[in-house]
Amino acid sequence: MEPLVLDSRTRLLVLTGAGVSAESGVPTFRGMNGLWENHPVEAVASPQGFDANPALVWRFYSQRRTGAADVKPNPGHDALVRWEQHLGDRFLLATQNVDGLHTKAGSQRVVDMHGNLFRTKCADCGRVPFADTSVHPSGTVPKCDSCGGRLRPDIVWFGEMLDPNDLARIGEFIQRQDGTRLVFLAAGTSGAVWPAAGIVDEVRAVRGDTWLVNYESAANTERFHHFVQGLSGQVLPTLANLV
Ligand code: BJW
Ligand code: ZN
């Protein structure tokens, strides 16, 4: 297999999805044993679902908070930390995962595209989101101290805009013109959710090299130059040649 060469002329954008956390014991969304097997997606991950039944949404996210509280990073997360230490500012990690495991592992240049499971915001006023590990599993909805409105998890749901600052940071990294060559690697993601699924094409538009590491073929596999099929915790630690 051709190695992924990370040398002093390379800048690397990594996109991770739920598959990267799977070997830490965090369930994925889609497919076998996926989190959404027993929950209609729109009921728990959309503003409309929250308006219709906020207590159900808090039950779902309370289970998620409890499940993700004690999990540990796996060798896939650790490999990305080593790559960042090697590349410095020529590395950026965009993650769709909300479990915080990349930060726990030691990654620093992280864009949390879809928010953070352990942060809460107000659905009804503009107060700044805050760190929060509390759970509300028994049909209650926590109230905002500032306005008395409904609190909600600080997660990007379907139909909601991603933070424009996050998108700008990823876009600027892709467009950077400093004489380095751009490599993009997506790992553990089904390629089903936008705008993350379209990053591969933004990278191709500037003639970047593109890699996918996934357990099974993704919705956008054919857009990548290289597809390495396997578990990220096994593939990532040996994939790159750090020179
Ligand atoms: C392993 C493994 C191992 C397992 N090793 N691999 C353009 C076209 C069509 C639709 C749209 C579009 N633009 C926007 C949309 C609408 C929508 C969308 O994408 N819909 C599609 C489903 C069709 N997007 C949005 O609404 C986004 N907002 C937006 O674009 O705003 C502007 C706009 C709105 C409306 C219209 C147009 C523009 C927001 C998307 C936010 C997604 N948020 C979620 C929910 C969070 C809730 C929560 O956490 O509870 O984030 S969706 C869910 O999917 C979650 C994930 O981050 C995201 C991606 O999933 P991921 O990470 O890929 O996981 P899985 O489970 O799908 O796949 C895991 C993969 O790993 C599998 O392939 C396994 O094989 C593999 N695997 N073990 C390696 N060990
Ligand atoms: Zn409020």
Automatic annotation (TrEMBL):
Cofactor note: Binds 1 zinc ion per subunit.
Binding site for NAD(+): 17-36, 96-99, 188-190, 214-216, 232
GO molecular function, one term: zinc ion binding
EC number(s) from the headed UniProt entry: 2.3.1.286
Active site: residue positions: 114
Annotated binding of substrate, by residue: 61, 64
GO CC terms in record: cytoplasm
UniProt-listed InterPro entries: DHS-like_NAD/FAD-binding_dom (IPR029035), NAD-dep_sirtuin_deacylases (IPR050134), Sirtuin (IPR003000), Sirtuin_cat_small_dom_sf (IPR026591), Sirtuin_class_III (IPR027546), Ssirtuin_cat_dom (IPR026590)
Catalysed reactions, semicolon-separated: N(6)-succinyl-L-lysyl-[protein] + NAD(+) + H2O = 2''-O-succinyl-ADP-D-ribose + nicotinamide + L-lysyl-[protein]; N(6)-acetyl-L-lysyl-[protein] + NAD(+) + H2O = 2''-O-acetyl-ADP-D-ribose + nicotinamide + L-lysyl-[protein]
Keywords (A to Z) from UniProt: Cytoplasm, Metal-binding, NAD, Transferase, Zinc
Domain Deacetylase sirtuin-type: 1-243
Top enzyme class: transferase
Cell compartment(s), UniProt: Cytoplasm
Signal peptide range: none
Family designation: Belongs to the sirtuin family. Class III subfamily.
Record comment regarding domains: 2 residues (Tyr-61 and Arg-64) present in a large hydrophobic pocket are probably involved in substrate specificity. They are important for desuccinylation activity, but dispensable for deacetylation activity.
Stated role: NAD-dependent lysine deacetylase and desuccinylase that specifically removes acetyl and succinyl groups on target proteins. Modulates the activities of several proteins which are inactive in their acylated form.
UniProt name for this protein: NAD-dependent protein deacylase
Originating species: Corallococcus carmarthensis
Gene: cobB
